[in-house]
Amino acid sequence: MLTYTIRRLAFAVPTLLVISFLIFGILDLAPSDPTAQLPLTIPPEVREKIRLSLGLGDPFIVRYFKWLVQFMVNEPLNILEQWTGWTIGDGERLRVLSWQTRSPVVDLIVQRMPQTLWVVGMSYVVGIVIAIPIGVISAYRQYSWFDQFGTLFSMVGFSIPTFFTGLLFIVIFSVTLGWLPSIYDTTLVVEDWDSFVAQVKQMIMPTMVLGLYNASQLSRFMRASVLDNLNQDYVRTARAKGMTEKVVLLIHVLRNSMIPVVTVIALNLPQVFGGAIITEQIFRVNGLGQLLIGAIEGGDIPTVQTLTFIFAVLIVVFNLIADVLYGILDPRIRYD
Amino acid sequence: MPLADGAPLSRAPAADPAGEAPVLEVDRLEVVFDTRGGAVHAINGVSFSVRPGELLGVVGESGSGKSVTMMSALDLLPSPPARRTGGAIRYQGRDVSSMGPKALRKLRGGDIGFVFQDPMTSLNPVFTVGYQICEPLRAHLGLSRKQARKRAAELLAMVGIPSPEARLDDYPHQFSGGMRQRVMVAIALSCEPRVIIADEPTTALDVTIQAQILDLVRDLRHRTGAAIVWVTHDLGVIAGIADRVAVMYAGQIVEEAPVAAIFAGPRHPYAAALLETIPDVEGERPERLTTIPGQPPILRAPPAACAFAPRCAHAFDRCHAQNPPLADDGTGHKAACWLRPETVAAAEAGEGAR
């Protein structure tokens, strides 16, 4: 398993280099102008100078390699210095700078990460916690009223987009009932019970909107997987051994049913880091999704490039994690 | 092979445990499957019993209801679609269907061991073999983890698996088909059951492995004294190990006799036809293997006439009008065929009684 993991990681390096080149190329081809949002009174010569100062005067390949060195070498060295307190070289390295804010992109990401992880990550946890029992019970009592209701719930949850459920939640719980705030306050610091309650309150709606969406998808997977396993011969063997239904279902069937579902969960996890762009917009969660949208609108190529590339890295890594988990859960799969 | 006309038995049965009370009794069992196309009467009044130490062979074509009978005995059929519509199953005189779920679980795996047809799929792929053997030991005998493991290793040794201690931690996919079936036998034997039901345990295995499993069962039976019900469609296997044979057709037993008697002189045309289909080892090799023409029926209603009549060379009017009862000729050889005087007599007695 270890050799397999190392080999896969080694293979990931050329893959990611190609991906970074493609992203850079596509962004370069896009007709976006970093000065487009500046006031119209700025004369064209000045605009040209701004572009040159952003490095746009260099040929494409040079710009790509500059970004590559900044992101692959300078940023990791910088993080290492911050963690360990060492000084490597003269400490004067060019970092990936956002065109909009002129601050390092990595610092922006570090600022936005906690909100996204809390809201989107929690919505994933909620989704899994809801989906697995629903999937198991729906399959065990196939065609019962519970199963019918579960099917309806997941069909509705899956087909209604989150921007609609988000607005619906806001209308019901913020406008009509006034129970929950409709805007996520990023500046809130949890330091006592009251601020903790406020934090939970502002997290409920975005978390539930995304969580129910995730749950509707996962519960279908879970149900199908459990149904598939309930018809297997080993279930009959377990019953013939005199095992209780609880043991049959929660030990024999569940372990087998989790194999494909865990893979699906692991493959979807990069989305958590990518942030739920629409949900973050609706609830004004100041997360990575909003950072990306703002950067796209402002023609902030370095930020878009860096964020997109980080998502690509996460997808590659979680694919590997999914494969490794598969091997751990299913003893028939060995990679060595 | 011609039909024997009540010829005397050429050999006495290998074992005669007739004196003892039966440990497992199936009494006029009826099972119906509710399918989309309507009800299918899979089992129509099957009765048999086994005594301690006895090996009963149950034979019949695919779809004759052999497996369904055995699964229904332990309530292992998925319901729906399966439904037990009549009859009773008694273990040591106690009615199984009136047992609570706890007593039924005690019976399954504790008092009655089950070996299934396909060893490749009957074990759970994600748990070690040791875990799967230990499960019933801990549930039924209340052994500790350590004791159960020790006993599991003994069981693996008993079914002839080399270095059993080490193999406990292996997963089913690390065993060959024959070895997996040995593991299944070990699980069935784990709690020293009084009855072992083996549902086509050698069908999925090749012939040399079959022989090993047969030897194993023969040996275990003498050692543990358990009653065995051995379901198969292979008469050759039955001839080698059974004391008594029951021949099933369309969810009914059509002939039941000591093994020697049935091989010497089958009385039901279906049993005779089954024996005909065994290829001869000696003599000229036939162009084609002998078959019984036609298919077993799918019964939408309980059979009103002899279910075999449409395929039977000897069928006459009564066969198409009335279902023959299974009757004993006084020597323990039972048949359900209007050609048999005991069947005719039993039918008349039955009508007289009504």
Descriptive overview:
The complex is a heterodimer of chains A (336) and B (354). With 336 residues, chain A is mainly α. Chain A has helices at 2-29, 44-53, 60-84, 105-140, 145-159, 162-176, 193-230, 233-240, 245-268, 270-274, 277-283, 288-297, 301-329. Chain A is globular. With 354 residues, chain B is of the alpha/beta class. Chain B has a single domain, classed as P-loop containing nucleotide triphosphate hydrolases (Rossmann fold, 3-Layer(aba) Sandwich). Chain B has helices spanning 66-73, 101-107, 129-140, 145-158, 164-167, 177-189, 207-224, 235-241, 259-264, 269-276, 317-321, 341-353; strands spanning 24-35, 38-50, 55-59, 82-91, 94-95, 112-115, 195-199, 227-232, 244-249, 252-258, 327-328, 334-335. In chain B, the strands form two sheets. Chain B has an eight-stranded mixed sheet with strand order 6-7-8-3-9-10-12-11, sandwiched between helices. In chain B, strand 11 and strand 12 (334-335) form a beta hairpin. The interface between A and B is medium-sized, with 21 and 27 residues.
Which helices and strands appear, and what pairs or packs with what?
The complex is a heterodimer of chains A (336) and B (354).
Chain A: H1 2-29, H2 44-53, H3 60-84, H4 105-140, H5 145-159, H6 162-176, H7 193-230, H8 233-240, H9 245-268, H10 270-274, H11 277-283, H12 288-297, H13 301-329
Helix pairs in contact in A: 1-13, 4-5, 4-7, 5-7, 6-7, 6-11, 7-9, 8-9, 9-13, 11-12, 12-13
Chain B: E1 24-35, E2 38-50, E3 55-59, H1 66-73, E4 82-91, E5 94-95, H2 101-107, E6 112-115, H3 129-140, H4 145-158, H5 164-167, H6 177-189, E7 195-199, H7 207-224, E8 227-232, H8 235-241, E9 244-249, E10 252-258, H9 259-264, H10 269-276, H11 317-321, E11 327-328, E12 334-335, H12 341-353
Parallel strand pairs in B: 3-8, 3-9, 6-7, 7-8
Antiparallel strand pairs in B: 1-2, 1-4, 4-5, 9-10, 10-12, 11-12
Helix pairs in contact in B: 3-4, 4-6
